[in-house]
Amino acid sequence: xxxxxxxxxxxxxxxxxxxxxxxxxxxxxxxxxxxxxxxxxxxxxxxxxxxxxxxxxxxxxxxxxxxxxxxxxxxxxxxxxxxxxxxxxxxxxxxxxxxxxxxxxxxxxxxxxxxxxxxxxxxxxxxxxxxxxxxxxxxxxxxxxxxxxxxxxxxxxxxxxxxxxxxxxxxxxxxxxxxxxxxxxxxxxxxxxxxxxxxxxxxxxxxxxxxxxxxxxxxxxxxxxxxxxxxxxxxxxxxxxxxxxxxxxxxxxxxxxxxxxxxxxxxxxxxxxxxxxxxxxxxxxxxxxxxxxxxxxxxxxxxxxxxxxxxxxxxxxxxxxxxxxxxxxxxxxxxxxxxxxxxxxxxxxxxxxxxxxxxxxxxxxxxxxxxxxxxxxxxxxxxxxxxxxxxxxxxxxxxxxxxx
Length: 404
What we know:
This is MFS transporter. It holds the Pfam family MFS_1. Keywords: Membrane, Transmembrane, Transmembrane helix. It is found in: Membrane. One of its GO terms (molecular function) is carboxylic acid transmembrane transporter activity. Helix 4 runs antiparallel to helix 5, helix 5 crosses helix 13 and helix 12 runs antiparallel to helix 15. The longest helix has 31 residues. It contains 15 helices and no strands. It is globular and about 70 Å long. The protein is mainly alpha-helical. The protein has one domain: MFS general substrate transporter like domains (Growth Hormone, Chain: A, Up-down Bundle), CATH 1.20.1250.
């Protein structure tokens, strides 16, 4: 997830340098941002259900290969059109990896700490995104923006052999599909070397097998209203997150901050996200959607405060940190809660489609930001508008808390 976060957010950190090199208007980068998010959406919608058929491990490995190659090829992009195409390719891999990493972690975690452990795992995404900003601040002045994608492409490809050897398949998935009991035994012995079994053993999951399209089961057995509300939370949360993460460095640069400093300050969104992710887990496990609703309510105030504090570097940094704490932390908490809600047979589908629908919001967010910047909206109206999606997410999470 560390590399996933780095590669996902890299385009936002290099955007000012790309615009300067290719002499692009500020708003014209919106389609470039959204191209990668389109790939993320398609990857999540396709590879989530596919993993419920063939396994989480295979999809994670294939996805890592795809986004590593896509990021590496971005180094050679000659213009904005090629950059858009390569961001779609990279997004396909990233979109396939995310829901399956969530599902796999959830299925290896004890129920009472499942949200906490999923959030700790996903903190790697925020750490990678935050360090991406700090690394961009160091690399861009010395080597140019292409160096950021060189690092982002090489690292996952170099890690792939290790993942192939070390990454296990979900025990619950293996037991669900049947006929792979020897693999379950091997995994259990890796977890607890002193474990032994006498004779032939068969593992089962006390959940019904589901036939037909996995997506249809997201709305079966009373799950429909929860699915819709989860999709609203994901849509609004990711709209806000990607609007901020993609446009913050550019807005700060417009306010007179240097490109490298703007990237470093923008990285505070993800630094706050790391702290929020590591802090909120135990509260999410205990209070579920009630804690999530409060988190997004605070996020709305923090985002609006960015515009109000834009006259002060110190205050705007604090506001960005607080926004990341709540929005990134809230989004990762949403991932964890979604994984706990759906049964094994459709868990990757549930997480994947929630993320996929959320990616529509993440596509809309940068486009809306580009339109507002092209119209020379001030910082205060821009961030006041950006606070509204967080407020809607808070309301949807509150309804989930009341009804679930």
